[in-house]
Amino acid sequence: MARSFIPEPLATLPWRVLLALTLLVAFAAAVLYSAGGGAMYPYAGPHVMRFALFMLMAVAISYAPPELVRWAAYPLYGALIVLLVLVEALGHISGGGQRWLALGPLVLQPSELMKPAVVLVLASFYNTLPAGMVSNWRSLIPPALLIGVPMALVLLQPDLGTALAVAFVGAIVMYLAGLPVKWFLGAGAAGIIAAPLAYFFVLHDYQRERVTTFINPASDPLGTGYHITQSQIAIGSGGILGKGFGNGSQSHLAYLPEAHTDFVFATMAEEWGLIGGLFVLLVFGVVLRWGWNVARRSPDRFSCLLAGGMTATIFFYVAINMMMVMGLAPVVGIPLPFLSYGGSSMMTNMICVGSLMMVERWSRKIRSPGLS
Q: Is residue 3 part of a domain?
């Protein structure tokens, strides 16, 4: 009955998910407030404002009609390829990488936006491909180029983590499109064979050091293993209940590098303990379960691939970052969605959320044509 008093466009939003994300961002603001030395700036305040702004963007995306989205797939992909090329020519260098592009007052990381763009363009490609051609090897070449070109440009920055993310979400869309499983097994076997060659001839020196450190962090605890060592100390010292809000010594005494970005989960775990970590996992579980259900209930192939790919994008962020901070994966510079400070990451993940709301609206409209 109360639902009738709410305008229909608002009533149809997935409020359970949006409220869970809002609670997570509020929790992140508390963590960033502590990481910023007990002040709303420079981290906590901008983080909340970005979330509010990108939430409005996500709601706007959710109203996009399917015809417009399909039409925009290749133009958006092409525009981001141009931006990646411009990064190589005019990009801002920071932290040893050339990944940012200044567009007036806006500083953008185009490689972040390439993840949902790859999902969109692959969903469009396989949607127009006749079902009988999916298992033909010719259906593999165009997607390989659509994935390979941005990967190559991102590796030049260099940004191995984002390149792997582009490859991962692309592979998920291809798998959902129905490509034979033996192709993926073959690609996996080829990857295992090529890994030693990539280690010696493709990776940069600092990337090789990260792989070595991942295998044995104790080999250089004050050098290449410093990030992982301090992160594990912070997480382990939090225990079950944590040290308490504002009492994290690793971040406050500057032992933990990137305490507000890539290693924000370690900052949180030190002060909020296992309980805080379980809350974060619960919210991500709610979001990922919702995304998977949206994909399963999608009305057509394009919608299913789009929703599945966007869900996989969020999953990659979460899984790799949490494995990284716990020493279960090499340090690759992947932020934690909705907790890590950073505008490009927040934008990318809210694009994914907005796209999932959009597909859910398409499904609802087909089931009930009278609803918008």
A: no
Q: Does residue 155 belong to any structural domain of this protein?
A: yes
Query: Cβ distance 12 to 361 under 8 Å?
Result: yes
pTM exceeds cut of 0.85: yes
Which residues in the chain show pLDDT less than 70? 1-10, 91-98, 103-106, 201-202, 204, 206-207, 210, 213-224, 367-372
- What is the Cα–Cα distance from 184 to 282, expressed in whole angstroms? 31
Six-digit token string for 112: 């972040």
Q: How do residues 41-71 score in pLDDT, each as one tens digit?
A: 888 999 999 999 999 999 999 999 999 999 9
Radius of gyration (C-alpha) of the chain in whole angstroms: 21
Is 8 within the bounds of a domain? no
Number of domains in the chain: 1
Q: Which two tokens stand for residue 255?
A: 């032992």
Those residues whose C-beta lies under 8 Å from the C-beta of residue 143, and which sit 6 or more positions away, are: 122, 125, 126, 170, 174
Q: Which residues contact 174 (CB under 8 A, 6 or more apart)?
A: 122, 126, 140, 143
- The range of the structural domain enclosing residue 19 comes to 15-367
